[in-house]
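Lab notebook, bench 4. The sequencing result for the construct came back, and we need a structural model before the next group meeting so we can plan mutations. Quick request posted to the team channel:

Model the 3D structure of this chain.
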Amino acid sequence: KLAKLLRFYSTNDPDQLTSLDEYISRMKDDQDTILYLPGDSKESILKSPILSKYTSKGYEVLLLGDAIDEFCTQHLTEYEKRKVKSIAKDDVSIIDGNDEIAKKKLQKLKEMYKPLVDWYKKTLGKEVEKVTISNKLVDTPLFIFTSQYGYSAQMEKINKAQAFANQEKAPSYMLAKKTLELNPHHPVMRHLLESIKENDGEIPESEQEYARLMFHMALLNSGFQIEDPSAITEPLEKLIRVGFGYDRDMVIEEIEIDLEEDNDANDDDEEEDDPEEDDIEGEAEVEDAAAIHDDL
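Done. Here's the predicted structure in token form:
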């Protein structure tokens, strides 16, 4: 009964609150799930890279920009015989629905990208639970979804922010289990796949750093916190060097400053324009003028 009183913003009208009943009235005929996406604010949620695929296919998504919102939906798994799910979870499979052709294409892409998927699994190890190919991404190269069980990225962040939360004693089953999904259509992913094929299952060292950088960027995009900021700042600095036309591993050399040249220049200026000498000459001229006046 209380669920009928809930109001959320949605992609249908980001400035107007809507009820779950109103959401259901606008659902597509083949849609059986109420979709939502949690985040820090409505504005940040609207910029999420996973929204565009759903909105382009006509699916409305509720925007949960308040910290308390996800506490409600965690206990509201069903409403009016419709499932309630976060599109940031890896178990939402509404995009392709019953489209068998799309499913076959996705399976082909998974086979094609197996070398890159295996490389990411080996490289990231326990940092992710699994790696797979995605059908939910448009412009971003990769994204991190969470398991349907345990915390979402947003809930994990809220839990860590609690003043007396003891992270060491947090049950492992409640921590967010990360699923890295790769966008097979993105040019960077296609390039990495070709690099692996050309280098016997490995990516060149210079590109490995950028592959990991994209993973950390995906963490931020997905709402996770970065424990080690240098994992992003160091490779970004190298990218900036390359962008300005310098070598990525260029050694920074200290500028040599010659203070003796400045001292010599100051000495020359003093000799050319000595104020004391000017004063003496001025006084002499005044005395001469006074003597001439007395003679007259």
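The domain at 88-255 is CATH 1.20.120.790 (Four Helix Bundle (Hemerythrin (Met), subunit A)).
Will bring this to the meeting.
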